[in-house]
Structures are given as structure tokens and as C-alpha cells.
Write a structure and sequence with these properties.
Elements: E1 11-14, E2 21-25, H1 33-39, E3 46-50, H2 52-68, E4 73-77, H3 87-99, E5 107-112, H4 114-126, E6 133-137, H5 140-146, E7 151-156, E8 159-166, E9 171-174, H6 184-201, H7 203-217, H8 221-241, H9 256-265, H10 273-290, H11 296-308, H12 320-328, E10 333-334, E11 337-345, E12 348-353, H13 356-370
Parallel strand pairs: 2-9, 3-4, 3-5, 5-6, 6-9
Antiparallel strand pairs: 1-2, 7-8, 10-11, 11-12
The structure holds nicotinamide-adenine-dinucleotide and zinc ion (ZN).
Length: 371
């Protein structure tokens, strides 16, 4: 993809050869979407995939911006929520694209959080064997994580994100002002992924988060801009080195081994994703310390920061059997081994297979400490 011509502050390039693209971090940028698409050389029809919440908040702004730049747009709004991340809704969107005669030159815009982004990216990857798409991410989780890196897909009744494709967007547009309308719980949940980046890759960024967490929680604009930009830089650099998760990219799963297990044990109702990741990070660090891989200070600093972000930190009441069974169900399992990202220091992690006996003994110790 051509690079954005007008160099705006907050531009991060994802370097993937022919599939390289820009992430534009641009407060108020939603009003410029049409111009961005024009700059990239698009001229065809634009399909906006969104849900009624986002349509109500930002649909008009996006449509008007596209119109001003000379695009013809068509809005496809599907119900809100994870339950639409299914093949059924993929088929529904494909039907609409067929009926509206979308062509190879057409482009899709994902206007929403991770659900809309994952779904739209997958639709874009299969419609006419692939048409371009743009991520306009509106949640913190989507702005720092899901919109970057090209993992797209839907859920299967037997497992989350089990059907999908690696398919990179042509542009990621992050208007940080849209975060202002997020429900508080969704906003806070995204901070878990933010802390994750500090833990896996950047000690200085972690310290920045410690210094500025109160401002960040209060959405102070310059702190927020730095947070989104730094997270995108880290994700972009990891993805550029390992697009298909054959090695390094696995570090992005920090907190997700226990996190995903808790999400599934809570039937995806008890915790939203970021909350489960927050708890997952706290306890994966604790496990790492017990295994002798990191110091107590790492565990304490991280727990304090997770707490200050307003995230839950306590492990819910679960049995080891259930927890281990849920961990074994995860996608990070290979040849029966549960691979887990374990911190060695702030900003440094290792990915190791877990020994069931060692994890059991850690877990039993927790029980004793807690009673
Ligand atoms: N592809 C990846 O690499 C990747 C990475 C992380 C997560 N994910 C996926 O992302 C999904 C979770 O994404 P999410 O946390 O963004 O949840 P989400 O997309 O469900 O959005 C959360 C809620 O916030 C609402 N919303 C979104 N933006 C808003 C705004 N600006 N103002 C008001 N309301 C707004 C949505 O309508 C929804 O109700 C999961 O399906 C997960 O599997 C994918
Ligand atoms: Zn996550």
C-alpha cells in the first residue's frame, strides 16, 4: 500500500513488504476518512460495516466524509456483540455485498471494535478472493491490538477465533476521540492490553504507565496519544518480524493463557476479554516467580499497575482441574503442551511449555496462602 502522503504526527508503518500499511493515530481523524482513502488511491464503492451503536454515534460523520471525497458508500449494520462473530453473519454481509454489486475495486471499512474488525477483515479476505479493507477502530482493545496485524476471523461453536485468515488492512485509522464514548468497563478493559506491551517489550513504557496511569485513566489526550502510538509501534514491530505467529508474535499472548481459560470458564459472561487478561497477567507473573524466572518485585509492580488501572486482579474460585483443562483447550497448545508467556523482568518475557506438575504445585500453594 502506498504511504500516506501528508505526514501527520502519529503515523506508524507496519513493514510487511508489499502488504505494508500505515496506522494513522489522528484525533478527529474520522472526519478525514474520505481523504485518507483518496490518498491511498481508492476510487470505488465503500462498504461501511458497523453496528447500530457505532452507526448512531459516528455513521453520519463517516458517510459525510466519504461523500465529500467523492465516494459512494453503503452502510451494513449488524447487531452488536461477540455473538455476530460467526459464519452466519459473514454470509449475511457477503449477501449484501453481492446484492449491492461490490467489485474488486471496492473497499470495506470496519467501523467498530474488535468484533467488527475481525468480521470485516475476514469478509474482505474471501469476497471475490480478497478486496481491500480499512480498520477504523473505536475501542481501546481494537486501537492497540486487534486492528493491527491482520488476524481476522470468526468463532466456531466449539472454539473462539477458530475460523479465519491472516489478511492485512490497507490502512488503520485510529481516532482517539472516539474512545470518549466507550462504556467505562470497555475502556478500562483495554488498559490490560496496554500494560501487556510494557511487560513484554518496553521497560520504559511500563515506567511511563506507572507515572501517568491516573492521567491515562482520565483520558488526558497527550498521555492517551502516546499510549496508543507506543502500543502500535510495538505491535507493528512484532508483526513485521513474525506475521504468522511462528515465533516472536506469541509474546503478544502474555496473560492470555490463564486469561482465555478464565473467559471460557466464565462462559464469556463473567469477564470481558481485557479483564480476564488483566487477571491472567497477574497470575502468570506469579507463576513465573514461583518457577524462579522473575523477582517478586516484577509481580508486585505489575499487580499494582493493573489495580490502578481499575482492573480486577483476583483469581476467581476455580479448581486446578478445571483451570488446566481450560488452558489445554487454548490455541497456544501444541503437541499437547501448554505454551505460556512468562515474564523474566519488566519488558522481557520467555515463551515456555508448562509442566503440569509444577503448575499444580504453584496452584495448591495459592490455595494455602489464601486460606
Ligand atoms: N484480531 C486480533 O488480533 C484480535 C486481538 C484482540 C482481540 N480480538 C477480538 O476482538 C474482540 C473484542 O474487541 P473489543 O474489545 O473491541 O469489543 P467489541 O468490538 O465487542 O466492542 C465492545 C463494545 O463497545 C461498543 N463500542 C465500540 N466502540 C465504541 C465507541 N467508540 N463508543 C461507544 N461504544 C463503542 C461496541 O458496540 C461493543 O458493545 C474479540 O472478538 C476478540 O477475539 C482480536
Ligand atoms: Zn487480548
Amino acid at each position: 500500500m502506498p504511504q500516506i502522503k501528508t505526514k501527520k504526527t502519529g503515523l506508524v508503518r507496519v513493514g510487511l513488504g508489499k502488504r505494508s500499511y500505515d496506522i494513522a493515530i489522528h484525533p478527529g481523524g474520522l472526519t478525514q476518512l474520505g481523504q485518507y482513502l483518496k490518498d491511498l488511491g481508492f476510487s470505488g464503492k465503500v462498504g461501511i460495516i458497523t453496528n447500530p451503536v457505532l452507526e448512531g454515534l459516528y455513521g453520519r460523520t463517516v458517510e459525510q466524509s466519504l461523500k465529500r471525497a467523492g465516494f459512494q458508500s453503503h452502510m451494513i449494520s449488524i447487531p452488536d456483540g461477540e455473538r455476530t462473530k460467526t459464519l452466519r453473519w459473514v454470509a449475511h454481509i457477503l449477501d449484501q455485498l453481492m446484492e449491492q454489486r461490490f467489485e474488486r475495486q471496492s473497499v470495506l471499512v470496519a467501523l467498530g471494535g474488535g468484533v467488527i474488525g475481525d468480521l470485516t477483515g475476514f469478509v474482505a479476505s474471501v469476497y471475490l478472493r480478497g478486496i481491500p479493507f480499512v480498520q477504523v477502530a473505536t475501542t481501546l482493545v481494537a486501537q492497540v491490538d486487534s486492528s493491527v496485524g491482520g488476524k481476522t476471523g470468526v468463532n466456531h461453536p466449539l472454539g473462539k477465533n477458530m475460523i479465519g485468515a491472516f489478511y492485512q488492512p490497507s490502512l488503520v485509522l485510529l481516532d482517539t476521540q472516539t474512545l470518549g464514548t466507550l462504556p467505562t468497563r470497555e475502556w478500562i478493559a483495554g488498559l490490560a492490553e496496554v500494560i501487556k506491551y510494557g511487560m513484554i517489550a518496553d521497560r520504559n513504557f511500563f515506567t511511563f504507565l506507572e507515572n501517568r496511569m491516573d492521567d491515562i485513566v482520565g483520558m488526558e489526550q497527550s498521555a492517551l496519544h502516546h499510549v496508543v502510538k507506543r502500543c502500535c509501534e510495538i505491535k507493528a514491530s512484532v508483526v513485521a518480524k513474525d506475521e504468522r505467529e511462528s515465533g516472536l508474535r506469541r509474546i503478544l499472548n502474555y496473560g492470555h493463557t490463564i486469561g482465555h481459560a478464565l473467559e471460557s470458564l466464565g462462559k464469556y459472561k463473567k469477564y470481558i476479554h481485557g479483564e480476564a487478561v488483566g487477571i491472567g497477567m497477574v497470575w502468570e507473573a506469579d507463576l513465573s516467580q514461583t518457577l524462579g524466572l522473575c523477582s517478586k518485585q516484577v509481580v508486585t509492580r505489575q499487580r499494582d499497575l493493573v489495580k490502578r488501572a481499575g482492573l480486577p486482579t483476583e483469581l476467581p474460585t476455580v479448581t486446578f482441574r478445571d483451570l488446566w483443562a481450560a488452558m489445554l483447550h487454548d490455541k497456544k497448545v501444541a503437541q499437547g503442551l501448554v505454551y505460556c508467556v512468562l515474564p523474566k523482568a519488566i519488558g522481557k518475557v520467555t515463551v515456555d511449555p508448562l509442566d503440569q506438575k509444577a503448575v499444580k504445585s504453584w496452584f495448591n500453594q495459592l490455595g494455602k496462602n489464601r486460606t
